[in-house]
Design brief:
The chain is mostly helical. Helices cover about 60% and strands about 0% of the residues. It has a domain at about 25-100: Endonuclease III, domain 1, CATH 1.10.340.
């Protein structure tokens, strides 16, 4: 299958694929993305409503004590470090950008807690800038479906996807790959017997299930 054919099939499977982190603006999404590292979107969505009620703006969060922030996110893994990161994020936004989320990769990467994946999510979801954020799901699917090799770095995977997928489809591909990886082609128990991409998959077990050499 070509990349276009794969995306068409994924669109049929997940027509409602979209960002599942609850947010009202770019600041809230940035915070949610930082909190989502090694945590599920579901767990993040449970804590952010109260967090954003108390700290609705970068200015409000920038004045907070890290221990106070921890109280609202303590059910999420690595919450000590994440509290420091989102406090630093808020302070960086206020000090460098007057509390306004920047719209370029270089500027976003100057903010504490914001790496390339997070920046791509913000650019894509909030500003509709063509980008492909490679999280654990996108990385896994890219390698299983031969968009990239097993030992490729996250950055290499991103570059290969950008090369193999039309730019106007990058944002959509990001969400489709995530939904496919999160709800179908999961890490431990993928639904290989129902998968339309088995012949393209590098997983030998998947091929064996369908009798494909």
């Amino acid at each position: 299958m070509t990349s276009s054919e794969i995306l068409t099939k994924l669109e049929e499977m997940f027509p409602n694929a979209e960002c599942e982190l609850i947010h009202d603006n770019a600041f809230q999404l940035a915070v949610a993305v930082v909190l989502s590292a090694q945590a599920t979107d579901v767990s993040v969505n449970k804590v952010t409503p109260k967090l954003f009620e108390v700290y609705p703006t970068p200015q409000a969060m920038a004045q907070a004590d890290v221990k106070e922030i921890e109280k609202y996110i303590k059910t999420i893994g690595l919450y000590h470090n994440k509290a420091k990161s989102i406090l630093g994020l808020a302070q960086g936004l206020v000090e460098k950008f007057d509390g306004i989320m920047p719209k370029t990769m270089d500027e976003l990467l100057t903010l504490p807690g914001v790496g390339r994946k997070s920046a791509n999510v913000i650019l894509s979801v909030c500003f509709n800038v063509p980008a492909i954020a490679v999280d654990t799901h996108v990385d896994r699917i890219s390698k299983r479906l031969k968009f990239a090799y097993k030992n490729d770095s996250v950055l290499t995977v991103e570059k290969k996807l950008m090369k193999k997928i039309d730019k106007d489809k990058w944002n959509r591909a990001h969400h489709l790959f995530i939904f496919f990886g999160r709800y179908f082609c999961t890490a431990r128990n993928p639904k290989c017997d129902e998968c339309p991409f088995t012949s393209q998959c590098v997983d030998k077990k998947a091929k064996a299930m369908k009798g494909i050499e």
